[in-house]
Design goal:
By secondary structure, the chain is mainly alpha-helical. The chain is built from 6 helices and 2 strands, in the order βααααααβ. It starts with 6 loop residues before the first strand and ends in a 10-residue tail after the last strand.
């Protein structure tokens, strides 16, 4: 049970439908799932101070701010690589703080300092300017492209992003618990989902 001063979180929702305007129905469902995961993550960070966003626990290496940049960076990088499209140069610069160092940790701070609204804007920019415009136009999301790790497909990348957002959002939730104001995880009134027709 969360303390009485915990902020009530965004309810977890599973009744999303495929996003409109997609040529591939599976991609539309996966993009809708990513939208839910992004919005849940955004809800966790939207009220945090720069101090809470930059908090790193003892023996830790990542902050909430660097994890947010990392998730946006990874999504943009993987989607553009799988689709064979170049990532815009201005986004590459914004992603520098979310890159892994030689020690496996994320390094740097977001440009302009850690600001919740700026992090949220970056996350939404990736969705609106990279992921949705690219993925919505694809009919074949199983076409494979070579990469440094072996062949990749847009379907594989979208599935990886579902895992990636879930995994790092859990870390963000823990970092908030350790170094920021408390947050109450909640469910929606209805724990159900759309039929896959």
């Amino acid at each position: 049970m969360a303390p009485p001063d915990a902020r009530q979180g965004r309810p977890r929702k599973y009744d999303f439908a495929p996003l409109p305007g997609f040529k591939n129905r599976d991609a539309a469902y996966l993009a809708a799932c990513l939208d839910e995961l992004r919005e849940r993550c955004i809800d966790i960070v939207k009220d945090l101070s720069p101090q809470a966003l930059d908090f790193v626990p003892d023996n830790g290496g990542n902050s909430i701010a660097t994890l947010c940049v990392h998730m946006a960076s990874a999504e943009a990088g993987w989607v553009t690589k799988a689709a064979g499209i170049e990532l815009p140069a201005d986004l590459k610069a914004a992603f520098e703080p979310g890159q892994h160092g030689g020690d496996g940790e994320l390094h740097g701070k977001p440009a302009g300092g850690s600001d919740a609204q700026a992090l949220i804007a970056l996350i939404r920019r990736v969705r609106d300017e990279v992921t949705i415009p690219i993925v919505s136009k694809l009919e074949d999301i199983d076409a494979e492209r070579p990469s440094g790790r072996g062949p990749i497909s847009v379907r594989g990348v979208l599935m990886h992003m579902v895992w990636h957002w879930t995994y790092h959002s859990g870390q963000i939730g823990l970092l908030r618990r350790l170094g920021g104001p408390r947050y109450q995880w909640t469910f929606d009134k209805r724990l159900a989902g759309d039929k896959l027709a």
